[in-house]
Specification:
The complex is a heterodimer.
Chain A (H helix, E strand, L loop, with lengths): L1 H13 L1 E9 L9 E4 L6 E2 L5 E6 L4 E5 L5 E5 L5 E6 L10 E3 L5 E3 L7 E5 H4 L7 H5 L6 E5 L8 E5 L12 E4 L2 E2 L12 E7 L2 H4 L10 E6 L5 E16 L43 E4 L9 E4 L6 H5 L3 E13 L3 E13 L6 E15 L2 E16 L2 H9 L32 H7 E18 L5 E20 L6 H4 L2 E6 L6 E6 L3 H6 L7 E23 L4 E23 L17 E22 L3 E12 L10 E10 H4 L9 E15 L20 E2 L9 E2 L3 E2 L7 E14 L4 E20 L8 E20 L2 E2 L3 E19 L5 E3 L19 E5 L6 E7 L7 E2 L9 E10 L4 E11 L2 E11 L2 E4 L1 H8 L18 E4 L5 E3 L25 E3 L2 E12 L2 H5 L6 E14 L21 E2 L7 E11 L1
Parallel strand pairs in A: 1-7, 13-16, 36-39, 45-50, 49-55
Antiparallel strand pairs in A: 1-4, 2-3, 2-5, 5-6, 8-9, 10-15, 11-12, 13-14, 15-16, 17-20, 17-56, 18-19, 20-21, 21-22, 22-23, 23-24, 24-25, 25-28, 26-27, 28-29, 29-30, 30-31, 31-32, 32-33, 33-37, 34-35, 37-38, 38-39, 39-41, 40-41, 41-47, 42-43, 43-44, 44-46, 47-48, 48-53, 49-52, 50-51, 53-54, 54-56
Chain B lengths: L1 H20 L21 H17 L9 H8 L3 E3 L7 H4 L9 H20 L7 H22 L2 E2 L14 E2 L1 H20 L19 H18 L6 H7 L16 E3 L13 H6 L14 E3 L1 H9 L5 H4 L48 E4 L1 H13 L7 H16 L4 H9 L14 H12 L5 H11 L26 H6 L1 H5 L16
Antiparallel strand pairs in B: 1-5, 2-3, 4-6
Helix pairs in contact in B: 2-5, 2-6, 3-17, 5-6, 6-7, 6-8, 7-8, 8-13, 13-14, 13-16, 14-15, 14-16, 16-17
Classes of the chains: A mainly beta, B mainly alpha.
């Protein structure tokens, strides 16, 4: 003690003022950085420009730290001014900045729930068009699925899996502090400064009745102080088909024409057929299609064209050009950007364009400050009927030279009349004549005003307006066929023995006859919707030191949301003339319109009590007045209580080793709501409550007046409630070179809103009830490493792992199951629907959704039971649960390797534990183009792993009883009628992103005088996908839509693709 | 405490709202009513849709699929067979009835009853609407009567209750019948006491255009039909005449007065087509509709018509490619293509026809044909329940069937037909007149009211030589007696279904069966 005092006295004697400036790696000033002299009490903070003055003496060590940056220690020499560069990458776990609910910024160590932040750089690795793609695989608990590979592919985002059976399970999206009701894909990834992921409900509790799914907080760029910079980047991206379903290349066309009872000795090749149940390819010239009116006949070699389908889906080029300008001075910041994406898809003729313009900035004047951002997004999609074209192409017999029939206008074998196929038109005709055009015009404006009258108080008002205008049109050209095509005609066949050609008079070309003499009229459909959203909130933030040990940070506020949706559609199946306007509709047009609105007012409070900067208790509370609920159900409190304890700060001694450098434990408990199950056009709009009203009979059909709605609403509906409990631990090891975060959570949903099916004898089909309970639990692990860091070389990797499991506890009392989606109908050959389902269900006692469909009848050993006489298996009439649709295990890995100017970054991920229903399978089996239909040589066969009854309740392994057919009478009918044949494991490994970038050395650039930075990168997305052998169809990440009924791919999705890009980025 | 904090909150919230956002009272009450649809509608706008769905239930294939009620009845009663061009459904062909069979009949009936009840609810207050209320009761009875004939005990008193009870209990079938008969009496009283033309449904009445005396006849005919179902019950002999006191043929639907839904059917859209046309007819562009090719002529009915020189053969069925009318045995596994087997609906080829079962997409959907009414009267007269001459009524019934199908000069053609020397046609010479009446009723109700044919077979055993399926593995010795409660009912009302005990479609009987 004495020693210390004397040392202190001595040092005062030699003190002198040192001035300095703290900047980050990019040269931006670090305002608020704290500067202290090691071993001394007190210290100072850098001002907005990063400047500071502190008294110190030669030999002292300055300790500089700042939220979001590392800690730096610098020994003072004889200088009087000093420049300090803080390293971003050295960020210490616990000190990174986290933007929490309502824009409150905190150090990570203060936070009692699980969060993760993804920086701009990480988002842009493979230059994704949508932010969602850039987040995939990078954060535990965050699952992002691209639902198909179409243009501007939609994504489904979930945090901690699914809780709600029928409501929205996707997180709230908050952009610059305001709830953003639009799709994340309308934001340019280049405009984003960072994305903070608040994983659990606890973090989101402050958002009240729509808060149970976590939050993605997006902060856009607002400009930086200093010299104005201009950034320009351009990316060229090639997308190509990665793989197709497994197909057969052995057999050509026959679809059961020339009916015979036994198809096993089938030898007739049918030149106009789309099914491939014909003879083996033999390389001889055969006729394709019918002879044309002029007598000409297309002859093709009867041998498979292995690359024809891939050639059809040709590689597509997408370009992205981005421009941004940012500047700033002492009191203002400015950011402006423009991005233009011109996109093409592997589906020929599909194209789209997205333009985003954004302006943002801030201005400070004394106690006032304001910031703003305005963005405008235009998105155009012009696509064909993917389903029709994809199915048609996939099912084209392998010997058909499809890509040579592209010119349907001039090539006589490619016209509607001349195209070989009797049952489907030339897909190139479809592409050019059936277009879906959607145009979105979205404007978002966000302004925030702050008043900081005293140091500890900040009053802030924010207004955010969004207008989403969507317009959709469908145009289909008329289809007419010549009289020749519509009348009976001669068809030329190759004789089965190869001895020449046969001419047979047959009925008319099917599509032509079906279209009739007048053909099929042009059709047109148009719809438009407008969604206007207003959010307005007022909040006061207090930051006060109560005593030496205690300080408090608190927010009190109110928030108001108004959400209006108007939509109309008109359309028809027939236009009098092909001029695409509803004025030309003949007959009764389809029509519809609707408008819905919802309003919500919330009062919230949020407080964090800080004890000695190592123990934190945080609580938040909110109550909403939500117009979607009756007066009695409006005031439901939502809250969160969490605590964080930084063990390594409380007990510094435990870090006195080279292993542990940081340790924190946290716990959180919350109650949040979810009312999205009431949603109409937008997840936040009321619609469900209306359902009871009588409805006018469907437009376009007989105007028979009104019928009672058989889907009953419920005026007493309440929000779903989710109670979440979470504990977590965060560790920094080996001088924070390795950071480990682990969380365990459990969520219990009660009062789940379901449209429960009712007995129709009650007069209704469904009723809206608060009647489902679910649980959802999981663990999340994040390992971040920064193993090597030298001047020239650095290497680190991040691994994240999530295990989660949800369960349906109950649905409306003892109700066993709830269908989450409409059914996919599988059909017996040409016959009526047999109500086969490949459905997503919520099933009591099981995970949800589960995939249910029908299976073969099986014996107790699981073998397929065949009829001892026919050798045929049979379909079990009962639905069977095949497995859950959401993955139980998700693993993501990112590694980054830098050497001098080169950086190599890669992200790979795994998902597994789930099943998927592949609807395309049944279409491929119908036509016999799939590999499985050729697996038995088209002969009668012993059904694999089968048995038959011994007549006494036992089963005998089947080694000799062959099916009664192995060709046309088996695969498209019996085999295809069993949905279980199209279910496979949905597990996969993907090399999600890989990128190599090269930063052009400053020395080179210095010659140019104006270029400050320039980099060039090459990247790839989804270059490698590994699937289990059982999945012979498509990408198991796909699903039919972005709803809860995951676990089904449809036949309407283009094949999986991989993307290569090259980017040049220049900063002036 | 909670109350207090709630009111405190409300005060605080109100102050904040008023000061910050200028919100007014009612700001958050915007979702109380739907801005897009009316919350109540007048009966004149409910009745047409209820009539259309009633016709669809009676006729078509509500919900689609090949195992729905009306299709099943046509198959079981020997009118239709299953095409040889399709992979057969063994369950259908072996009478292996599951709860999937016919479910859509059930699932359409109750929501329609719910719609009809909305009419009665509308008049529950001070509004006067005896005509609408009466029609609604008649149609509810029409639908419930069908339900009992198919399923025996069904939910009735607690059914279609606007969401007040999702688990309606099942009522005893016989009690339902008794109740429906008195409901029909009340409907007649209601209509007869209607004040004036003020509540006349006019054009909203797609059956009679507001001619209320016809609805009275409809109610009485339906009552007669129900009473005759009771002929084989132990107390039928006393109960039936007691409820037909003073009944005369003019009380009932008479010649030329088919009770049929019409006026709104057209070929403009698939959903606008007559329900039977939609099921076994043609699309708006005149290609085959759903089950046109799947169901074909059954050889049993074809042989009956041909053996009796019946001009209706070519009106119920099409000719095959060789110009002949040829049926297929039900359950046959023989390789017979559709080109060889007659189709359904008569020789209409899609264009409006003047004769046949299928005449146009806009043709009326018959709920009770004049022919059926006359056959009912013939039986009642023959049994002495009503006054009138059975022979005359029978003759008129056959002639009405001929007329409905478009036989030219139906009266004389019918006279020629019934003069043939066969008990199947000739009432006068028939040894068993009830059998002749029921046989001809069966011949007339082909595809028009196959459920009533099934009722008659289950009640009286006619046609007595009705064949069963010849599909391999068929063990049944007769056609089914009833359907099973549908899957939806087993799933969502299972406790009440369980109370009905074990039900076997081949052995469990409807209460009125002998």
């Amino acid at each position: 003690m004495v020693m210390a005092v004397s040392f202190c006295a001595a040092s005062i004697a030699q003190m002198r003022p040192i001035t300095g400036k703290v900047v980050d790696k990019e040269g931006k000033p670090v305002s608020g950085a704290s500067i202290a002299v090691k071993g001394h009490q007190g210290g100072t903070a850098a001002n907005a420009d990063g400047d500071f003055t502190i008294n110190a003496k030669t030999g002292d060590v300055l300790v500089i730290s700042s939220i979001g940056h590392g800690l730096k220690q610098i020994k003072i020499g004889s200088q009087s001014s000093i420049s300090i560069v803080l390293d971003n990458a050295d960020a210490v776990i616990g000190e990174v900045v986290v933007t929490t609910g309502f824009g409150v910024q905190k150090q990570a160590k203060e936070v009692g729930y699980s969060t993760a932040t993804v920086q701009s750089k990480e988002l842009l690795v493979a230059r994704p068009i949508s932010v969602a793609n850039g987040l995939t695989g990078k954060v535990s608990g965050l699952q992002i699925s691209t639902t198909n590979n179409g243009l501007f592919a939609p994504t489904r985002i979930t945090l901690r899996g699914n809780r709600s059976l029928t409501g929205n399970n996707q997180p709230l999206l908050v952009v610059d502090g305001a709830i953003f009701y639009n799709d994340i894909s309308t934001i340019s990834p280049e405009d984003i400064s960072d994305v903070t992921v608040l994983k659990g409900a606890s973090a989101a509790a402050i958002y009240g009745s729509d808060a149970s799914n976590g939050v993605l907080i997006v902060t856009t760029k607002k400009g930086v102080r200093g010299k104005a910079t201009i950034n320009f980047s351009t990316t060229a991206q090639i997308e190509s088909v990665a793989y197709l379903p497994d197909l057969q290349y052995e057999y050509g066309s026959n679809g059961g024409e020339k009916t015979v009872s036994d198809f096993n000795d089938l030898s007739t090749y049918i030149p106009y057929e789309n099914q491939s149940y014909g003879p083996k390819f033999n390389g001889k010239l055969v006729p394709l299609g019918r002879p044309l009116a002029d007598g000409s006949l297309l002859m093709v070699p009867y041998s498979p064209l292995k690359n024809e389908k891939k050639k059809f889906f040709a590689p597509a080029l997408t370009t992205q050009n981005s421009f941004s300008y940012q500047a700033g001075d002492d009191n203002s910041r400015f950011f402006m950007s423009l991005q233009d994406v011109n996109s093409k898809s592997v589906m020929p003729g599909d194209f789209g364009r997205r333009d985003i313009f954004r302006v943002g900035g801030s201005k400070t004047a004394g106690v006032f400050s304001a910031n703003y951002s305005v963005s405008y997004t235009y998105k155009l999609k012009n696509v064909t009927n993917t389903a029709t074209v994809y199915q048609n192409v996939m099912n084209t017999p392998q010997h058909v030279p499809l890509t040579s029939l592209k010119d349907w206008q001039n090539n006589k074998f490619a016209t509607l009349d001349g195209f070989y196929n009797d049952y489907f038109d030339n897909p190139y005709w479809d592409i050019d004549n059936r277009r879906n055009i959607s145009k979105d015009n979205n404007i978002s404006a966000n302004a925030q005003f702050n008043l900081k009258p005293v140091k500890w108080l900040n009053i802030s008002y924010r207004l955010a307006l969004t207008n989403l205008g969507d317009r959709y049109e469908y145009k289909a050209s008329p289809q007419t066929y010549s009289a020749y095509s519509r009348s009976d005609a001669h068809v030329v066949y190759s004789k089965p023995d190869g001895s020449g050609l046969d001419t047979v008079l047959e009925s008319a070309k099917y599509v032509a006859a079906a279209a009739g003499a007048n053909g099929i009229a042009a059709s047109y459909y148009s719809s438009s919707s407008n969604n206007f959203l207003l959010t307005s909130d007022l909040s006061a933030t207090f930051d006060h030191k109560l005593s030496r040990d205690f300080s408090i940070k608190a927010v009190l506020g109110t928030s108001y949301d108004d959400n209006k949706l108007d939509a109309t559609f008109t359309g028809a199946t027939a236009l009098a003339v092909p001029v695409y306007n509803v004025n030309n509709v003949s007959g009764i047009p389809l029509k519809g319109s609707g408008n819905v609105e919802a309003r919500k007012f919330g009062i919230f409070g949020d407080a964090t009590l800080d004890f000695k900067s190592y123990a934190y208790v945080h609580g938040s509370y909110r109550t909403d007045i939500d117009s979607r609920f009756s007066k009695d159900n409006r005031l439901i409190p939502y809250y969160d209580v969490d605590a964080s304890f930084v063990v390594s700060d409380a007990f510094k001694s435990i870090t006195d080793n080279n292993i542990l450098s940081f340790a924190k434990i946290r716990v959180a408990h919350s109650l949040t709501g979810n009312a999205s199950a009431l949603a109409g056009g937008s997840a936040y709009i009321a619609d469900g409550a209306y359902k009871t009203s009588a409805t006018y009979l469907p437009s376009g059909v007989t105007n028979g007046g009104y019928a009672q709605n058989t889907n009953l609403g419920n005026p007493n509906i309440k929000p779903e409630q989710v109670v979440e409990n979470e504990v977590g631990i965060e560790l920094g090891l080996f001088k924070n070179k390795v950071n480990l975060t682990a969380s365990i959570y459990k969520q219990d949903l009660t009062d789940g809103i379901v449209d429960a099916s009712t007995a129709t004898s009650a007069g209704s089909n469904t009723a809206l009830l608060n009647a489902a309970n679910t649980t959802n639990k999981g663990i999340e692990l994040d390992l971040k490493t920064n193993l090597i860091k030298t001047k020239d070389f650095s290497w680190g990797y991040n691994i994240n792992y999530t295990h989660s499991q949800n369960k349906v506890v109950s649905i409306n009392g003892d109700l066993q199951s709830l269908a989450l989606s409409g059914s996919i109908s599988l059909q017996d050959q040409y016959g009526p629907t047999v109500n086969q389902n490949g459905n997503a269900f919520g099933e009591k006692g099981q995970a949800f959704p589960v995939i249910e469909t029908r299976d073969w009848v099986r014996d107790p050993m699981g073998r397929v039971v065949v009829d001892p006489v026919t050798g045929n298996p049979s379909r079990d009439p009962n639905l069977k649960v095949f497995g859950q649709a959401s993955p139980t295990d998700i693993l993501g890995m990112t590694t980054s390797f830098a050497y001098k100017a080169f950086t190599l970054t890669a992200t790979a991920d795994y998902r597994g534990g789930n099943k998927i229903f592949n609807s395309i399978g049944q279409y491929l089996d119908f036509t016999g183009i799939s590999a499985v239909t050729a697996s038995q040589g088209r002969q009668r066969f012993v059904f694999p792993n089968s048995s038959y009854s011994d007549g006494n309740g036992g089963y005998i392994a089947n080694t000799s009883k062959t099916t009664d057919d192995g060709n046309f009478n088996f695969w498209p009918g019996l085999y295809r009628s069993v949905g279980g044949n199209y279910i496979s494991s949905a597990a996969f490994w993907k090399l999600r992103e890989i990128s190599l970038s090269y930063e052009i050395p400053k020395k080179v650039l210095s010659f140019t005088k104006i270029i400050q930075r320039a980099s060039f990168s090459l990247s790839g997305r989804n270059l490698v996908t590994l699937r289990p052998k059982s999945n012979v169809w498509t990408d198991p990440e796909f699903s039919e839509g972005t709803g809860n009924d995951i676990g089904r791919t449809s036949e309407n999705q283009t094949p999986p693709t991989k993307i290569y890009s090259a980017t040049l980025s220049v900063t002036l | 405490m909670y109350k207090n904090s709630k009111s405190l909150f409300l005060v605080a919230a109100t102050i904040l709202l008023l000061t910050t956002y200028g919100c007014k009272k009612g700001t958050f009450d915007i979702n109380d009513t739907n801005p897009n649809v009316p919350s109540t509608v007048a009966p004149s706008l409910i009745l047409p849709s209820a009539l259309l769905s009633t016709a669809t239930i009676a006729y078509g294939n509500p919900g689609g699929g090949s195992q729905t009620g009306n299709d099943l009845f046509n198959i079981y009663m020997g009118y239709w067979a299953v095409s040889g061009d399709y992979i057969p459904s063994a369950a259908l062909l072996t009478y292996n009835i599951t709860s999937d069979f016919g479910g859509s009949i059930w699932e359409s009936a109750y929501p329609t009853i719910q719609n009809l009840k909305a009419i009665n609810t509308y008049y529950a207050g001070s509004k006067v609407g005896n005509n609408y209320a009466g029609i609604s009761l008649i149609l509810q009875a029409y639908l419930m009567e069908r339900m009992v004939n198919i399923y025996n005990n069904v939910p009735y008193t607690q059914a279609a209750n606007s969401g007040t009870n999702f688990f309606p209990a099942y009522d005893d079938a016989k009690t339902i019948y008794t109740s429906l008969i008195s409901q029909l009496d009340s409907s007649v009283t209601l209509i007869n006491s209607a004040t004036a033309a003020t509540d006349n449904p006019g054009s909203a009445d797609l059956v009679y255009g507001g001619k209320m005396s016809s609805w009275v006849a409809f109610a009485k005919t339906l009552k007669l039909k129900m009473l005759l179902h009771l002929t084989q019950t132990s107390d039928g002999a006393t109960y039936i005449p007691a409820h037909l006191t003073g009944a005369v043929p003019s009380d009932f639907i008479g010649a030329g007065a088919d009770a049929a839904v019409s006026g709104l059917y057209n070929n403009g859209a698939a959903a606008n087509q007559n329900p039977l046309w939609q099921e076994i007819g043609y699309t708006t562009t005149l290609s085959d509709n759903g089950n046109k090719a799947y169901f074909r002529a059954c050889s049993y009915a074809v042989n009956f018509y041909l053996a009796n020189n019946d001009p209706r053969a070519s009106l119920f069925y099409t000719v095959n490619t060789s110009g002949a009318i040829k049926g297929r045995a039900f359950g046959s596994t023989k390789l017979e293509h559709n080109a060889d087997i007659s189709g359904l609906g008569g020789n209409a080829t899609g264009n409006p026809q003047t004769s046949g079962l299928l005449q146009s997409a806009a043709q009326p959907a018959v709920l009770i044909s004049a022919s059926e009414s006359l056959f009912l009267q013939a039986e009642a007269a023959q049994r002495g329940y009503i006054t009138g001459t059975a022979a005359t009524l029978y003759q008129s019934a056959v002639a009405e069937s001929f007329r409905l199908l478009g036989v030219s000069s139906p009266t004389s053609a019918a006279a020629t037909y019934t003069a043939q020397n066969s008990d199947a046609v000739n009432f006068t010479t028939s040894a068993d007149k009830i059998k002749t009446i029921i046989t001809q009723k069966w011949a007339a109700n082909n595809t028009i009211d196959p459920l009533e044919s099934w009722n008659d077979w289950r009640r009286l055993g006619y046609p007595s030589d009705l064949p069963i399926s010849i599909y391999p593995g068929t063990t049944a010795t007769h056609i089914p007696y009833r359907l099973l409660y549908p899957t939806s009912e087993n799933n969502y009302n299972k406790d009440n279904v369980a109370k009905q005990g074990t039900i076997n479609a081949l052995t469990s009987k409807i209460f009125w069966m002998p």
